[in-house]
Design brief:
Layout: H1 4-18, E1 28-29, E2 35-38, E3 41-45, H2 58-71, H3 79-83, H4 86-99, E4 103-107, H5 110-121, E5 127-131, H6 136-144, E6 148-152, H7 157-166, E7 172-177, H8 189-198, E8 202-206, H9 223-227, E9 231-236, E10 246-250, H10 252-261, H11 263-266, H12 273-287, H13 290-306, E11 314-315, E12 322-328, H14 330-342, E13 345-346, E14 349-350, E15 360-365, H15 372-385
Parallel strand pairs: 3-13, 5-6, 5-7, 7-8, 8-9
Antiparallel strand pairs: 1-2, 2-3, 4-10, 9-10, 11-12, 12-15, 14-15
Helix pairs in contact: 2-12, 4-12, 5-6, 13-15
């Protein structure tokens, strides 16, 4: 007898193929970088979030080797059992100082951090107010929190204020990406903080793509937001920081509450301590990384100037390393991505549900590790294909 559940999955996969929405894993051979071997062929990669080129930096590799002899490979237990190593604590203290918050907590991944924060702070009696273009992890965490969820139009603060004004919840939580991962635009931090203060809400900012890049590497928080007790700040550490995990920085009592109540922190094995040692070295490199950030900014300017009058798609306004070229149809974005790959340039086609329908795009991610020749090659190829 035919298994009906499997048949439904197979029909679903066939529909994804028909809609040009099937995704597949590519196999990287060697270290992450601007030039990689992918699926057995050399390519220039414009799809990594390694914005500062730290993922294979010799200083981080040396830190890993040095830590290995002191802590081994695995943590062995959850943080609240015996998994919390000195290296974890050293990184948390250094991170909090660097971003200008009183305390910090290291999670194994950004997805787990978002789930931990939102489910701990917004229960069934709370309400969450979230930008519609927030990352999937924030959307999922809001739904799993049990709180009533409101989504406001992207960066529409008037709609957000209306939602806040209508709320009678004791616990209100405004949730936003700080740099939006698919559009590359930046949230108005102080304007969001104005609303949080006016309506007595928390403000939770996920700075996955701004940390290490903006404001001397300290991320997208303003000085006012750093000083606010109601602002909770997240930075993921597998992008510009070049390693793995995520850190949440906030008032010390918020961090203490998360240690007690954030289930993804309490009930999972701690991340390997050697990664925390690498992250401490990464912070040093980020703090001293003005030359890397200047190089990255030059790459952004070079790309935007070179594609200013491109007659295929629309290059969205962004001063960040995320440069989205909106094409529209899924198959058009795939064809353009494939044509670039045939020229040795890896630029991913991003399609729904990651982005709204009819806004499929090439998401060009720039890194300080790219050379000027890499940028020139990409610009030339896009102009030729256009």
């Amino acid at each position: 007898m035919r298994f009906a559940g499997l048949s439904r999955l197979q029909r679903g996969l066939a529909q994804l193929r028909d809609e040009h929405l099937v995704r597949r894993r590519r196999v990287l051979d060697g270290a992450q970088g601007a030039h990689v071997i992918l699926d057995g062929r050399p390519v220039v990669s414009f799809c990594s979030n390694d914005y500062l080129g730290l993922a294979a930096d010799p200083a981080l590799t040396a830190a890993a080797h040095a830590a290995l002899g002191q802590c081994g490979v695995g943590a062995g237990a959850a943080h609240l059992i015996t998994g919390h190593h000195r290296f974890h604590g050293d990184f948390e203290a250094a991170f909090a100082r660097f971003v200008g918050k009183p305390a910090a907590l290291l999670f194994s991944a950004g997805y787990l951090a978002n789930l931990g924060v939102l489910t701990s702070l917004a229960g069934r009696q709370g309400e969450i107010f979230a930008d519609k273009l927030n990352h999937a992890s924030l959307i999922d965490a809001a739904q799993l929190s049990g709180a009533r969820c409101h989504r406001y139009r992207h960066l529409d603060l008037a709609q957000l204020e209306g939602q806040l004004a209508a709320s009678t919840a004791a616990d209100k939580l405004i949730v936003s990406d700080l740099v939006f991962s698919m559009d590359g635009d930046v949230a108005p931090v102080d304007a969001l903080l104005d609303l949080a203060e006016r309506y007595d809400a928390w403000l939770y900012l996920d700075d996955a793509h701004g940390f290490g890049v903006l404001n001397g590497g300290r991320g997208g928080l303003t000085e006012r937001a750093r000083a606010s007790e109601r602002v909770i700040y997240l930075a993921t550490l597998g992008k510009a920081a070049g390693v793995a995990g995520a850190a949440v920085a906030a008032h010390a009592d918020v961090v203490d509450w998360l240690v007690q109540k954030a289930r993804p922190y309490v009930y999972t094995t701690a991340s390997p301590p050697l990664l925390a040692a690498c992250l401490t070295e990464s912070l040093r490199q980020i703090e001293a990384g003005d030359a890397r950030r200047a190089r990255l900014a030059n790459h952004v300017a070079h790309l935007r100037a070179g594609l200013a009058d491109l007659n295929v798609g629309a290059l969205l306004p962004s001063d960040t390393p995320i440069q989205p070229l909106v094409v529209g149809a899924n198959d058009d974005a795939l064809r353009l991505s494939q044509a670039l790959l045939e020229r040795g340039l890896l630029v991913p086609a991003i399609r729904p549900p990651t982005v709204p329908a009819n806004t499929a795009r090439l998401r060009i991610s720039l890194s300080a590790a790219h050379s000027e020749a890499d940028l020139a090659r990409l610009v030339e190829a896009l102009r030729d294909l256009a």
